[in-house]
Amino acid sequence: MNRKIGVIGGMGPMASQLFYKMVTEKTVADRDQDHVPMMILSDPQMPDRTQAILSGKTDEVTARLLEDARTLENCGCDAIAITCNTAHYFADKIADELHIPIIHMIRETAGETAEEATATGNRRVAILATDGTIRTGLYQKALEAQGLEPFVPGSEGQALVMHEIYDCVKAGLPYDREAWADIHRELTGHGCGRALLACTELSVIGSDNDLGDMYKDPLEVLARRVIEFSGHKVKPGR
Q1: E-assigned strands of the chain?
Q2: For this structure, is 199 an active site residue?
Q3: Across the 238 residues of the chain, what is the mean pLDDT of every consecutive 10-residue run?
Q4: Which terminus, N or C, of the chain has the lesser number of Cβ atoms within 10 Å?
């Protein structure tokens, strides 16, 4: 089995290249031919997902995401992966329009997090995400379905998360260490056992910096699921 994965990326571009790196590094491979076949459609012109959700004007994003997904489907891909958390709000709207599955980063992350919470006994999970992802309740619903207790930062903490995403990573700048320290203090102060880097810009921060074991990256979860779906093996400890 050697299933081809279609990846919709470009939201943002740094996260897409990080995802490809993750899949490559996590795959058990001794030669080129042992790696996962992928088609990456980078669409940086996709309208901002958070703005679309907050404004209620979602049709353009939904239509464009469906077009991208159908392009990959028509190119022979066996499944779709989307390297943007907020875009999964729109992915849920187009899933029934496709003949191939979407490997759902949010649901996969919630399931894996629940297994970890059973082992640790701490079921409070923080969600660090865009205002759009928070507004939709995507992660809150997925975590609650797994018996977990979602925690969302207060207004000041959420503003700092958005600062890290838009003012730092999307702008091509280093993350704000002082702002992150404030975010971390809020999460630990509310007893969170886990914190999800539920925006792929935050995945970039997590990849470039040692944030600690508390933080879990859904993009890494997606990378592992893509490898497994394709019929390949994930490296131990990855």
Answers
A1: 5-9, 38-42, 79-82, 124-128, 149-151, 194-197, 215-216
A2: yes
A3: 95 92 97 96 95 95 98 98 96 97 98 92 96 95 97 98 95 95 97 96 94 96 98 89
A4: N
